[in-house]
Each structure stands twice: as C-alpha cells, then as structure tokens.
C-alpha cells in the first residue's frame, strides 16, 4: 500500500516547488537542460540534493517509483 498522503504537500506556489525540490533535487542544467532559461527560474533557489525514492515511498515497487 502507498502512503495515501500527498507526496508534495505545498501550501503555496513557491512552497509546492520547494517541496518538489527537497525530494527530487533542485533542477540544474545537468538534470534539466534549459531550466535556467525558464522565465521564473531563480539562480538563488535553495540547492537540495535528490533523495532516494525507496526511502520516500518504501512500499512502492520499482515500476511505481519509475512512474513517479
């Protein structure tokens, strides 16, 4: 069974982004070519490292994690 809770429970637009960044890592030109050219991209966004999905959703199999 999955957690049945939101994976990214942000309460505002910026909080939503930061929730995603905290889990998937802050995007860079290496992980997302062109990201720094997006109109709302900020070079001073906090830099978070990607977390392993096994620790976030341990009951999800590999196919489910790939889908996420």
UniProtKB/TrEMBL annotation:
Q: Which domain of life, per UniProt?
A: Eukaryota
Q: Which molecular function GO terms apply here?
A: kinase activity
Q: Which UniProt keywords apply?
A: Kinase, Transferase
* The protein, known as: CDK2 kinase
Q: Which organism is it from?
A: Smutsornis africanus
């Amino acid at each position: 069974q999955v957690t049945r809770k939101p994976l990214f429970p942000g309460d505002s637009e910026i909080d939503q982004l930061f929730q995603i960044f905290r889990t998937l890592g802050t995007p860079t030109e290496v992980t997302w070519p062109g990201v720094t050219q997006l109109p709302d991209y900020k070079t001073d966004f906090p830099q978070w490292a990607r977390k392993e999905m096994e620790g976030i959703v341990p009951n999800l199999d590999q196919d489910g994690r790939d889908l996420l």
